Amino acid sequence: MSSHDAHHHSGHSHHEPGFVRKYIFSTDHKMIGIQYGLTSLCFLLFGFSLVMMMRWQLAYPGQPLPFLGKLIGETAFPGGVMAPEFYNQLGAMHGTIMVFLGIVPLAVGAFGNYLLPLQIGAGDMAFPKLNMMSYWVFFVGGVTMLCSFLMPGGAAQSGWTSYPPLSDIAPTGQTVWLLAMVFLITSSLLGSVNFIVTCIQLRVKGMSFFRMPVFTWCQLVTAFLLLLAFPPLEAASVLQLMDRLAGTSFFMPTGLVISGEQAHVAGGGNPLLWQHLFWFLAHPEVYVLILPAVGIIAEVLTTNTRKPLYGYNTLVYSIIFLGFMSFVVWAHHMFMTGMGTTLSSFFQATTMIISIPSVIIVTTFLLTLWGASIRFNVPMLFATAFLPMFAIGGLTGLPLGLTASDIYLHDTYYVIGHFHYVVAPGTIFALFAGIYHWYPKLSGRQMSEFWGKVHFWGSFVCMNGIFMPMFFVGMAGVSRRLYDMSLYAHAKSVFRLNEVMSISAWSLALFQIPFILNLFISWKKGKKVSDNPWDCTTLEWATPTPPPHGNFAHPVEAHRGPYDYAGDTQEFVPQNL
């Protein structure tokens, strides 16, 4: 054990931190992980509630929204009917909240913070105070983002992509959105530096890179993606703030006409510059969503197949290659901007290439399942459902990577269906699997299997009910941004599918109630279990439950389980490799 850890343990024995220091401004990576987890789950619930209101407008356009229509007020719901401007606000904020305030903080901030030091035998993160700061900057950014709803003119309404010049002339809520993004990106940069240094410097002796669990590898690659891809968008957000507040024209073109009058701006800017800066982040961002999910699935599959992961080295190389390739495909989101054939051909080719490591990852998981004696508990149900859902999301993305088919499908509901299959029944299912899987390590108790299965089957059916019809609506040529698609002749043949999608979305919300109750009630009343109830073979399960401050506070006891420690040197020798 390092002297740094020993110092932690000796300090821990002298005094217990007070409530504020222990639970609010904590520097313990486990408490910070729990803070991230609870905060991001609240944001996910809020972001999901926004889309449930949108789905009412899409299924029953022009009809008053029961109860909420009057409650929210006449500005957003004149006569109880959703205003088009408010619909745009819901769309922009739903995407922003779910990605930047929900899934990324849960996948990286919560799971990464709690588990990464434990899995590599470290006492804490490399920079505990920086870790605390990353959470609180994230929290301030999240609150700032929600405050944009209170601005004159409402929240941001230029989509989650905030494309100029529309975003440059939007109401005040857009300024608050940009300010919140600066906070959120700063939080991710602080966290990613911490993850990288922790992985490289604080591994226990004997834990070589190719002995690290797949989950740790995924968090490490994700941290590099965040560190390298987020700064361009932070710079772009500052530039757009200057366009809005300081009269610059980074993204404002010359001769722009607004409401029939020429805009009095310096001009000379390029709206496409924003798209390049945004998508240079936002395509790696897709893998920031996926890679932690892949890591969780790897841990759950190996545990419940009760055999080592098939092709560990191949899987790790695929994860690294996926991370690298994610930086050279961004402009496949921009085929409609009129780029030349040479450039579009390059991005077509790289988009096809990046599908190869994704196929390898799914294949290694399927081969791990092959011939196994599978234990179908709740985490395993979510993990096995992830595989076909992620595969559907990936395969439906291939037509969007080819210019010929993308010209027709671009900005239709097909794109929403593709992206959500990757992120909703894909990544979110993996996150649910992780919550059920590691819950005993946090609490010493197990969540209810019965209610977990109710949650799983209800969510599985409803998510497919929401997103599968989107492919058919999109292939009919229906734009993803229509406030009332009943007005368009080409949408009439698929209009009724909106009702199917909306009812599925509201049903999905109901099936989250058992999960929420299960999460909190099991903390006190769940079935008590041992330190390693699943018989896992990674280091976090070798600690007491819950892990003490410093994690491996009793080094003599820490070897109990499927590990060997080489005497007092604390060398890690995994038995399954």
If you had to describe this structure to a student in words, what would you say it looks like?
- The protein has 577 residues and is mainly alpha-helical.
- It has a single domain (26-249, 268-542), classed as Cytochrome C Oxidase, Chain A.
- The protein contains 16 helices and six strands.
- The strands form three sheets. A two-stranded antiparallel sheet has the order 1-2. Strands 3-4 form a two-stranded antiparallel ribbon. The protein has a two-stranded antiparallel ribbon with strand order 5-6.
Give the strand order of the largest sheet, numbering strands 1, 2, ... along the chain: 1-2
Instruction: Bin the strand percentage.
Output: under 5%
Shape: globular
Largest sheet: 2 strands, antiparallel
Total E-strand runs: 6
Per DSSP, the total helix count is 16
Query: What's the name of the CATH homologous superfamily?
Result: Cytochrome c oxidase-like, subunit I domain
- Which architecture does the CATH hierarchy give at level 2? Up-down Bundle
The first-level CATH class is given as: Mainly Alpha
Helical proportion?
A: 55-70%
The average pLDDT value, as a whole number, equals 90
In the CATH scheme, what's the topology name? Answer: Cytochrome C Oxidase, Chain A
**Rg (C-alpha, Å):** 24 Å
Number of domains: 1
Distance between the termini: 22 Å
Structural class: mainly alpha
State the low-pLDDT regions, or none: 1-14, 555-577
How would you spell out the order of helices and strands? HHHHHHHHEEHHHHHHEHHEEE
